Amino acid sequence: MATTKKYWKSTAQLDESNEIVKNLEQNEFAAPIPTEEFLGNNEVMEESSTTRRDFLKYVGFSTAAASLAACEGPVIYSVPYVNQPEQIIPGMANYYATTIADGYDFASILVKTREGRPIKIESNKDAKYRGHANARVHASVLSLYDNNRLKTPLVKGAESTWETLDKEVAQKLNELNGKTLAVLTQTFASPSTMAIIEMLKSKYSNVRHVTYDTVGEDGALNAFESKYGVRGLADYDFTDAETIVSIGADFVGNWQGGGFDKGYSASRVPSNKSMSHHVQFESNMTLSGANADLRYPVTPTEQKHILAALYSKLVGGAANVSLSDKVAKVVEQTAQKLSKAGSKAVVLCGLPDQAAQQLVLAINEKLNSSIVDTAAPIMTRQGNRLAVDQLVKEMQSGSVGALFVAGVDPIYSYDNSDAFAKAMEKVALTVSFASREDSTAQKCDYVATTPHYLESWGDTEIKKGIVSLAQPTIRPIFDTRQLQDTLLKWSGSDQSYKDYLKLYSKSNGASWSQALQDGFFTSNVGLQVDENASEFVASVSDNSALSQLVNSKKPSGFELILYTKTGLGDGAQANNPWLQELPDPITRTTWDNYVTISQIDAEQLGVENENVANGGLNGSYVVVKMNGVERKLPALIQPGQAQGTIGIALGYGKTASIQAEMQTGVNAYPFFKSGSSIQAVTVENVGGEHEFACTQLQNTMMGRDIIRETDLTTYINGDKHEFNPMPEVSLNHIETPVTSPDVDLWTSFDRSTGHHFNMSIDLNACTGCGACVIACHAENNVPVVGKQEVRKSRDMHWLRIDRYYSSTDSFESDEDKKDGFEGLFGDNGSLGGFGELENPADNPQVAFQPVMCQHCNHAPCETVCPVAASSHGRQGQNHMAYNRCVGTRYCANNCPYKVRRFNWFLYNGNDEFDYHMNNDLGRMVINPDVTVRSRGVMEKCSMCMQMTQMTILEAKKDGRMIKDGEFATACSNACSNGAIKFGDINDKESEITKLKNSDRMYHLLEEVGTEPNVIYQVKVRNA
Amino acid sequence: MIKRKLHFSAWQFILASVFVTFSTLSVYGQDAATNDGEPAAPVEASGSGNAAAGEALFKANCASCHKLYKKAVGPALHEVSQKYDREWLYSWITNSAALIASGDAQAVAVYNEYNQTAMNAFPQLSNTDIDNILAYTDTPKPAPAAAVAGAVGGGQATGATDNSLNSIVLAALALILVLLVALLFVVNSTLKRFADANGIQTDFEEEKEVRRPIWKAFAENQFLVLVSAVFLLLASAYFAYGALMSVGVDQGYAPVQPIHYSHRIHAGTNQIECKYCHSSARESKHSGIPSLNVCMNCHKSVGEVADATYQEGINEYGVDYNKEIQKLYAATGWDSDEQAFTGETQPVRWVRIHNLPDLAYFNHAQHVTAGNIACQQCHGPVEEMEVMYQYSPLTMGWCINCHRETNVDLANNGYYEKIHEELSKQRGGKQLTIADLGGLECGKCHY
């Protein structure tokens, strides 16, 4: 039976003799209170001239002095506007629709502003396309208040003025003498920006625009362009998908810019007794693999062979590839499933290879897949690596007279950055359009400092035909000017970009005010594609593409798969502490990148991972070598990593204009040769110990019945009591459900009137993307604690996404094992039973489970609080009065869900924690409706009390009842995948009431009798 | 002998000072008559109109934009009838827009001079009415009461030296007292010496009956000591408790503000609704200190206070209201001569009076709009406050108490419809307090 399946979070848990894990499971806090640090030092104690009596006197005196000082309150000033803008009401939030387009992430969003400062990003649910924000987009509001941004334009590295810069650059542009003016930019996908670059071209004779994606998609772009004539990417909507086969494409994560998870999640919820079937062939363990029904760890070379085999089975052509029997069988089954699902099937490919991408397009065309949209492609990747390489050559030859760099940092991210730097020296005029002094800006003569996107105008054609508009949500904080404004000026125009954009959008069919309010409009002209790209695209016939794949050979060493993490992405926001501290959904590691390696390879190389006494994870270092590139990284043993492959995350190791605390990890871009994410490398163990800040073992829940899952057949045909049984206890020798009032120790309150909030978390819809974690950070002023504190299990995330591995493929064998278990320990103990499971390194199944305060109606934390700081509200929320808390931490000890977080330190205004809450600029992101907690108090999820109260107040002000769907929390708003739903169960018609009565509904640790107000929906696998 | 002489001169000085003080005070106390220059009384009808009727009409229709002797939104109207042709004035006043539209050169010139601010049309005014108004505006400007004004000025001047004079007097008095005490000692010791020299016994104490001092008796009565000790302890505990509980409670806090703003005049005398200025109290958690553009809605035309108000300010509160209005103009950059904003603004740093700690969440809209509570319930008789002060203690006990005692009006808010229905079934029409609806829960105010 599914519910008895056993889960583990770390391979260390599988070792029954591991004392550390046992200790961690028994203790709420990994580390004891560090009294020994100062009391244990006898020398210091004896040297001290302060006697105990003196000490007490000091204490007494300072207490008295403090109370006396408190008698006189400070004088607080209140400075109103002289002319208050009409739309601003102090204390009320305003929302503006805008668009993020930082070259890596593109989304239509809403920005919540308070008194004129943006404090939170929300999804733009009304947007026509890509209206949902991921974790990085949610965190981007903090990047606005980054103290390391440039504050003025720079001339030769020194702060200067725009007049000087304009004058000097104009003079030098006039001295070009026919040499090329190269404009190297990120993908803007912005029609108006393209038009402005055209203006620049008409002003200066020899202008060349080269688009460069930091993490490019050349293979897919080239294949799409040669097949459909547009440099774009196919769009996918998985909502109606029946069979999804992905070969190395992490489409739930960051593949091709991400954003496909919304439709995917919709297809994964078993409504009408059916759900999509997802097969994943991949090397690294990715979010997609973690969510797949069937996952096969294979090397990239094998992936090519599998794709070739699939192609020959579905489309035709001979593919004489040698696949192992097991894989061959799987490919056969997969091909059958695909052809059975027909137009509701889709094949995806993440191989950085034009041939592979071309075959996938052909397969989808053959399947007549309705999931794929090639007519209106996604335009958010336009870069062409060959064009960039060509530009570097031209710069070296001296034919380039001026170089403008905008939105990219090639000195950091170009694989041969030394060559790029040398080539730059041969260019007479180099101008960087950057908002921070990144590696490239440091080497440029001029930096035309650009504002953050929340201070800028803009338009972005994310998908062809739909233009998202960007508008400033705050006045520019620093003396900055947008790229477009600067280019307009240098092209000899007097127009501001705002006016230009307005006219341009109107001419493209926008009703300006309406479009600005909505954040998008439907364009009546297509995107102006960079015409230079085509010359670098070679077309290949499908047959030769097939033979290319068939003939690909496995390299002798390891195959390295470069990927981007959920947190840092391509590294553009490396100075963002929220993202640095966001645990990776799979490895649960923060503040680091590392080599992921399979258990078997690790054993062969002698790479070790071990947990030390405080739960921290230590790992050996390895050296990864590739044609003269050599980097030393820590190694992390990753269950499910394909043997013979390793993974390294890009985006780390940035140092230029990055605060010291945020200079984490190793820059892996030198491995990213020719923009290809797959490389042949050798790996060598060099020993040593690296300290990871990994939350995977923290707050474990002793292997209790926490995740419940079943398979689709059982779910459809089975009884609720079979796949989702209610725990029972014996009352007078009769088994009684624990929810029965007869066995309840508690008196229940009457919650029938007013609101009673419940939150439902659907384990099927949750992909582990982490957007909710960051949204919670932003909404609730959750502090960042830093790597060392995370390592000590002192992370402050109110909402964590637990990741569980489970090792058995079939439920039957699980049941047998479960029947054999007797207690936790001993020969047949369940802890020991873990050891008998399959080798976890092979291919574990993964489940994600967001856990926050469960808001128990019978809350164990409330009864043990000596000062009643934790109390219950009739609306179902468990309240935490910070000012009442004295920090005994009894509540955390008594919480079965381990969701309470203790403020070990003062995290704001403290130089020891030099993150955003330590400077005035960074503090501007703080939500004024939520208390900033102080040292020594316990905190936890409040179920966004401030938001529910605000919803109620708005209704009272209007004198109306509250409609279903009005109540929301930060996490439920952020969850565009529909995994987190929030509402009032006293509203009998509400969605949440239906979810509460669903067959899949269960409570965490039902048997404890806490009656939580957070409900979970059983995970159903379509295996 | 020399000493005695000195004493006499001191007395003379004191008497002189007291005299001077009283005489200045009496001068200061005189009622000052008007100097603003409204005609003292519309004495007789000049020209063809009735000035008394004209005054009423002027105050009802014209005064919001025109002053007699000073430019406001529109020009000063004193002797306007001599500047323009009367027929032209009739048509201008009844419908200036039509006159401008007709291209009348004079009308267009006036229109342009005043920033093309259109004057309201007054078709309801007959020519007679206009005659009356013009009669009023033609009333000769009264001569400023120079003597009285001079007296006021003098009074102020004396007032300025008043303080220093006072301290001189006090110092002199203190000196005299000290001298007197010294003198007594000298006299006493001289007498004693005389007595000793004459052999008169001065020490009578030995003859007194030896009595136990009362404190000794008290100290020996243990019961009394105990009772008083207990009493003392209790009393000091009571006062200590009171003192400690008032730590951080700023009831009565009335800081000096950068601009002396009188709620008494605005909310009391002029009956301006609280939420006209504190409009965000309806919508938001903050009541909002009004931005200065709200002030200027009225103060563009109210550049000076009425004379009686002015005097009241000077006499009772020691405030020159007109100067305070000038501070507002300086802050907003309003040039009252040009009737235009200069664009140079200087935000005002008000001292915040009602300060809740950050850990408490309070929402004005909840109380004002949803709860329908009058501002005065928490802020006290604001309409009587010349200087705004904190009326309520703003302690948690005070909040809670009100939540316990206040009934919720369930019937008149659509939000409570369902709750009302269910609860009236359950409780049979019994009133519900805020506490019954969860208004005492920690998390409602602390998050």
TrEMBL record, chain A:
Residues 757-787, 876-905 form the 4Fe-4S ferredoxin-type domain. It comes from the Bacteria. Pfam families: Fer4_11 (PF13247). InterPro entries: 4Fe4S_Fe-S-bd, TAT_var_transloc_signal_dom. This is Quinol:cytochrome C oxidoreductase. The lineage of its organism: Bacteria, Pseudomonadati, Bacteroidota, Flavobacteriia, Flavobacteriales.
TrEMBL record, chain B:
It comes from Nonlabens ulvanivorans (Persicivirga ulvanivorans). The chain crosses the membrane at residues 168-187, 223-241. Keywords: Heme, Iron, Membrane, Metal-binding, Signal, Transmembrane, Transmembrane helix. GO terms for molecular function: electron transfer activity; heme binding; metal ion binding. This is Cytochrome C. Residues 1-29 form the signal peptide. InterPro entries: Cyt_c-like_dom (IPR009056), Cyt_c-like_dom_sf (IPR036909), Multihaem_cyt_sf (IPR036280). Coiled coil: none annotated. Gene3D superfamilies: Cytochrome c-like domain (1.10.760.10), Cytochrome C3 (3.90.10.10). Residues 49-141 form the Cytochrome c domain. Pfam families: Cytochrom_C (PF00034). The lineage of its organism: Bacteria, Pseudomonadati, Bacteroidota, Flavobacteriia, Flavobacteriales.
